[in-house]
Amino acid sequence: MLSKSHIKLITSLKQKKYRLQHGFFVVEGVKTIKELLQSKLILHALYTTESFNIDAKNEILITEVELKRISFLTTPNKALAIFKIPEAKSIGENGLILALDAVRDPGNLGTIIRLCDWFGVKDLVCSKETVDCFNPKVIQATMGSITRVNISYVDLERFLNETGLPIYGAFMDGETVYDIQLPEKGILVMGNEANGVSKEVEAFINTKVSIPRFGDLQATESLNVATATAILLNEFRRVNF
Amino acid sequence: MLSKSHIKLITSLKQKKYRLQHGFFVVEGVKTIKELLQSKLILHALYTTESFNIDAKNEILITEVELKRISFLTTPNKALAIFKIPEAKSIGENGLILALDAVRDPGNLGTIIRLCDWFGVKDLVCSKETVDCFNPKVIQATMGSITRVNISYVDLERFLNETGLPIYGAFMDGETVYDIQLPEKGILVMGNEANGVSKEVEAFINTKVSIPRFGDLQATESLNVATATAILLNEFRRVNF
Questions:
Q1: pLDDT in tens, A125-145
Q2: Do A215 and B119 touch (CB under 8 A)?
Q3: Which residues in chain A are contacts of B215 at CB distance < 8 A?
Q4: Which of A36, A38, A32, A58 lies closest to A47, judged by CA?
Q5: What is the pLDDT at residue A88?
Q6: In this predicted complex, what is the ipTM?
Q7: What domains, with CATH codes, occur in chain B?
């Protein structure tokens, strides 16, 4: 049974303000919820149309109609769970770190979190202007990878100012990434979808890198930030393979 | 002024059946429409809230309210145009060709078309089960790249059977792409989002390639097909840079 207070809480968690206030976020779909249950994340409540056979005090069986009322998806997928937002761990300085300067699109951030997981990037550092990683659309796009990447929201300029690692940034007019001896340890900064890396953050970049274009050089479009991140993380890893 | 027959035609073009029947597709947004106007595509009609200063017989000035009625977008962007679907040119056999085996998501196909444009892949060959490239969501995601890539829908098995080019395919259990001497000319096959390359198509693959995973090897998720395409096209290009 679904009470009014449950519905009110779940609906509020669409908004960052209430996620921060309550310290909870929403996950949907059997597969992703199961993956999160196996992680260190703490379950607050599970609303499901079929039992997961977990501790009954956290599991609330509901009907399809009830699920449709609380789901953020057009096609709800059997279950919705509320988990506690974990505390971010301190940022390691012992590997490759990805930093995002105001990436706004939830789908892009979700894809980028999956890429960090794939390429073994333990730390994802986001500027305060980057979309919240506990946004339901981001969670949906990460497919469980969010449990394996440490995501910190920081004052990016301050972080870059204080690090001892070399700082690389993706630019349209950077050096060809194929020609650069990329290190095992360092920071790669990716910029906003429309404006790229901001002037303020650019001041901290040691090496500007770019992905060569092979098509019609007259065309002005850039690569999408998620696909550019895929290519550049692959470049960092391949040289140390 | 917007007549009922205009509205009926535009609305019908959301569906592939009617796009094929009429031979038209819809493009939205000032920037993309301007880019398509500069290409070889033939404009059928332009519905816009502000004049583009083009031949008046093709331009119909409408109000914001009228645009909202015909737009496929939640936030319409000043103009909507109908273009003629171009005839596919014959497939060249003199470079790198990308082939898609039942890629279903319009956003993925749009991103992949942009990647072909970036990496100078002139021919994109799609199985009949691949989402239609004139689907409005694909067009929206291509950002004009669709004018620079020759897209053919074919019987993929037959095409692969008849080509003289070496055929590479992306698989989870393929050889590490870093270890393979990739050629300048060849075909790269990418599979469906959920099932990868089908058994039928797999029979034609000469070399299975995979992108090494560096993160938690227990995790089972694969890369998204668009990001995997980005990485593999970059790999094909970098060796011949």
A1: 999 999 999 999 999 888 889
A2: yes
A3: 116-121, 148
A4: A58
A5: 84
A6: 0.91
A7: 4-84 (3.30.1330.30), 96-238 (3.40.1280.10)
